[in-house]
Amino acid sequence: MSAVPAVLPALPVLSAQAERLIELGVHEIAGLSADDLRTFAETAEVPAGGDGALLAVHPDRAPASALAPMLRRDDKQGFVVTDMSDVDLFTPLDTVALPDAPLYLLTGVDRGDEMADWSPNEALPALTAKARTPLLLTEGIHWVLQQPAVLERNHCFMTIGSRLRRTDSALDARTPAIWISNGTGRDGRERRDAPKVGWCWAGNRHTWLGFASATDRLVQGLWESRSYDEAGAAEPGERPRGR
Predict the structure, then answer these.
(1) What is the pLDDT of residues 73-91, one digit of tens each?
(2) How many domains does the chain have?
């Protein structure tokens, strides 16, 4: 196992992130125009003093099952593990407040390498105590789409802001993560080194998985001081933001 993870580059500027999503066709999945993304990126203001911000599409607009195949590592396409066919049913924890808008920003995104070998059950309260919010699975995929280098072998991450609720309202014990396939088992040898969306038990520890988190979620620019319903209709309202 590599002892020291690579120093990650700063996020691309928002205009470059918007073009990347347009190139991949994410705007079409989300029911948005290319101009919607470009205008949001042009008018948004990234808070000073950080390493930029990550542009994300609301998971109701662009679910994990649609985003995962867009991941690439060299010539290998991303995939969702076969025993996670319910991936899109993993929704934000009650403590995670998503902006009520199709596009938003995440600030202070971090892979959480210092929490490697922690369990999700241990990591969540620690993140909360540090006033950080765990990334959703879709947000983690957006991050890798913009910065493929954040996935390093032996230095990958969990996205414990997304959880599945069972019919009895208890949390399913699976917690989503993004890592690099070894091409074993049901993954298949042809998927070795491919980006992989999978899961780990909430009580288990893994030396090669950190816990991705952010400092905040913000809406600015085009959708500032507005909220949007599923059809994209604007309503008067406060500036959406959340953790």
Answers:
(1) 999 999 999 999 999 999 9
(2) 1
Q: 99 near 241, Cβ under 8 Å?
A: yes
Distances (CA, A) of 114 to 51, 66, 87, 167: 18, 30, 27, 34
- CA 220 centroid distance within chain: 19
Residue 80 maps to a domain: yes
pTM: 0.90
- What CA–CA distance (Å, rounded) separates 230 from 30? 10
**Domain assignment present for 74:** yes
Is the Cβ–Cβ distance between 102 and 86 less than 8 Å? no
Residue pair 180/90 in contact (Cβ under 8 Å)? The answer is: no
pLDDT at 4: 64
Dihedral angle of Cα 28, 58, 107, 9, to the nearest 10 degrees = -40
C-beta of residue 157 within 8 angstroms of C-beta of residue 210: yes
| Domain assignment of residue 220, given as a range | 14-242
**What letter would DSSP give residue 191?**
G
Residue where the block lists tokens 């892979």 = 111
CA distance 200 to 174: 6
- The CA–CA distances, whole Å, from 51 to 86, 111, 151, 241 equal 34, 13, 18, 19
Other Cβ atoms less than 10 A from the Cβ of 9: the count is 11
The pLDDT of residue 222 is above 90:
no
Mean per-residue pLDDT for 127-150?
98
- Beta strands (DSSP E) in 16-60 are 53-57
119 vs 10: CA distance, rounded Å: 28
Confirm whether 24 is domain-assigned. yes
